[in-house]
Amino acid sequence: MRSDTILNDAARGSSDPRQRRPIPAWVATTALLLPTYGWLTLAVLLPLLTMFVFSFMSATPMGKTPIVFTLKHYRAFIDQPYLINIAWTSLVIGFWTTLLCAVFGFLAAVALARATVGRMRETLLVLLLLPFWTNGLVRVFSWTMVLRENGFLDGVVHMLLPDIGSVSFLYTRYAIVLGLVHGYLPYMILTCYIALSTIDDAIIEAAASLGARWWTILLRILLPLAAPGLISGAVLTFVPVIGSFMEPRILGGKVGVTMGTVIEDQFTQAFNWPLGAALSFTLLAVVLAIFATFSGVLRRGTTA
Amino acid sequence: MRQLGRIYLLAILFFLYTPILVMMAMGFNESQLYELPFSFSTRWYVALMDNQQLLKAGMNSIIIAVITAVIATCLGTMASIALSRRTFRGKSLLQLLLLPPIAIPWLITGTAMLVFFYWSGIGRGMHALLIGHVALAIPYVVLVVGTGFNTIRADLEEAAMSLGSTPIHAFFAVTLPLLFPSILGAALFAFAVSLDQFVISYFLATPGYSTLPVQIYSAIRKGFTPEINAISTLLLLGSMAAILIFARFAKPGDVSDKR
User: Fold this and answer.
1) What domain count does chain A have?
2) Which residue ranges does UniProt annotate as crossing the membrane (chain A) (predicted)?
3) Is the ipTM here above 0.85?
4) pLDDT tens digit string along A253-266?
């Protein structure tokens, strides 16, 4: 036995005296991954799990009230029918925002891909995406400057038509949708543009040489081929929009009551954390269902 | 057709930038009630210099963003090395786990953090904000650095090793310098993500410790003066600068998984 180990050591030593024992691959991989996934566990996964538990509690565990586990917060939509209306409002706002983003964003991506080249295209792309990376809150605030009574919009309209009254529509649902479209349009342009940029020019030239008009090319070639980008853009617009609360609050005022603001209220005003948690998880279920439905397209749409 | 397309793009740019420019202009308008006609004044920027609450919040934002960028870039780059260069079981699951911070509405993530940090005794304040901001920035770093990895040939590292370099030495001497622009880009990106983050900060801030977006939000809700326009202008210019520098290091079209 002993001579064996000595022999092995000697063999290892003679092959390359300087070579150290290599770190096993799995140790290195784990060491590389552990900090990131540890952090994500602490900051995202455990919180979601805790909130799931909270959503079954009868009251916020802060005072001396004994806590009982209950399903009542998940029945909120039945017990408090006004929540159905609020959820509907959120869905309607999400629908219109997504639709408007899809139409204007797709056309912008087509214009970018077909009507510009080289440096001009690069510059335009950066300019179109830049607002997206600036503070969303500040951009929403900017719209109040434009839409308020005697704001920029009123000023421009009165310069052209001095007799007309105020056209201000701040604190309406239109204002909320406008602010949200402003927020998510750059994203839709990007996903559509990525999908469109993979299309071979020869297809379009072939269609044109065979006599296809521009609207035929747009609707029968570009639209179907850009569909993955359009769908992933739509999903990634709709999901944050139905969870938004600061846009409805600032641009909607009193009419800006959505699922997002109701959830926020439970945590900041009403201190009914379990109800807020249950509503959050209901929203999360909707979000996950949307992601699951479109997972195939999303994977293709974002890696294309 | 080509002309029409360009005019349309200009119209979209007009829509995107008009409110921002109007907001910025109003920060230079004399009137406290945003009344027109416009008369140029820097009084709101002067007033800003005396507003300790906003200045302190601005300082907090910058400090948090810098620390977030450093931590998220280190952690994210390490994870990206493993995810891009190594094969192991469960890799696709780990890649999927990067999505929740990006894909789940921040309202849900933010309230969940509030509940967990309260329940576990972590509490709110600067450390809580850091935990949250780093978690949001990591997926973007992994993505940006991962894209960088795809443009570097793996065989360069192998060539170095076949010439007698150890794996660690090969990484630091060959791969890391090639990867440096991506890492720098990722750090700027993480900085911008943290600087612009409002929702998470809103739930984790305390009355004594908050960031600029949280202060701006409470000012908007309670009634505001053009000072808010002035500080918002500075905030926008800051994040725009970070993103434009980022765009020089990594192509903006590459980062497709952002929100």
Assistant:
1) 2
2) 25-54, 86-112, 124-146, 174-196, 217-242, 275-298
3) yes
4) 888 899 999 999 99
